[in-house]
Design brief:
Largest sheet of chain A: none
Number of strands of chain A: 0
Number of domains of chain A: 2
Oligomer: homodimer
Helix content of chain A: over 70%
Number of helices of chain A: 9
Largest interface: A-B, 36 and 36 residues
Strand content of chain A: under 5%
Structural class of chain A: mainly alpha
Amino acid sequence: MSVKIAAMPSNRRAQPQAEKRAELISAARDLFVQDGYDPTPMNRIAQKAGVTPNTIYWYFKDKDELLLAVLDALLQEDMAAYDPVSQWPLADQMVWLVGRLRQTSTLMATVHSRIRVSPALNEWHDRFHALVEALLLAQLPGPLPPASRDAEIRIICFAIEGLVSHQIDPVTTRQTCEALAARCLVLAGR
Amino acid sequence: MSVKIAAMPSNRRAQPQAEKRAELISAARDLFVQDGYDPTPMNRIAQKAGVTPNTIYWYFKDKDELLLAVLDALLQEDMAAYDPVSQWPLADQMVWLVGRLRQTSTLMATVHSRIRVSPALNEWHDRFHALVEALLLAQLPGPLPPASRDAEIRIICFAIEGLVSHQIDPVTTRQTCEALAARCLVLAGR
DNA sequence: CAAACCTCTTAAACGGTATTCAAGAATGTG
DNA sequence: CACATTCTTGAATACCGTTTAAGAGGTTTG
């Protein structure tokens, strides 16, 4: 308790730090999306990134924390891709979103099944839902009565989740999205 | 290739067979529902049933097959409990169903996340959805145009799944179910 | 320059998992 | 009593996520 009291500045090379982390996230993302979370051993992630499994644990506390980073990366990509879509008709937006999320549907199922076991994942899931609901709220036509408005948003949100996680043919998917959008119009027109 | 050609009649004790199997299913059910599928080792299931882990593998091929048997048992109970409920108003039925399924919501998430990995579980899930949709179809008020009818059933089904798997307070749950039922009335009245 | 230090990497080990194997006990049949 | 079938088990296998202890290699400091 003598010498090194406040002498811990963030000194060294900072670039490789972020780069390696990004490489690990990228490798994990590919494998998680393709094979699923549970079936992908840390083994293979490390191998794909050209590293020993232990190395991952210097950058991430857990396999769960790695999953969290992957989810953040995917969400960021989705948000960027959504930007131009936000001008489309509501039903088309839903169809687009379903198709987009379907590519990572296995991870969506993983998130739901790990919510009870990982508090961090639970928080991420809550933030994700809040985000989607906010986007949906901005897209609803006209002023709706707030009581039914919230219910409507929840229904749309859950329906999208259902369409994503159960593989359903494109025609049926579109019909369902049209039905959801039509309902909002009916409510707004009243 | 000489002696025992066609000498394998199904002879022995048949009662203990089914009893032991039922005990294993019961033990697994309690643990799966309480702690979840993945966090429950075959270890503990065997211990709760007063058996060695290996014994389970004489009655069930897999942990997945054991899960399947548990799901069948739960479904049977739910169906029996639903019988009187089938006379209630549609919204009340939904609220009841959500509350009922919530008790096994962790298993529902497990099923969804293991669909891609276990064909048998996938089939079970398909049958389950077909069953729920058939029940819903019988409950829809009046004759609906078949195109929107199917979409409506899907939406209700997915909304119920969403209400079950995301913990949502009772008031919000009821509001959502009322909104779903109200929509059907609007469509039928038109 | 050298010593101390921090960042990063690794080989090896640990505890836990589902599942399999080989052997044996229990139980009805001839 | 032999015998085959049904059931049970102790031990082993293979894999997994994670930890530990040790060490390279560059950075700072005296």
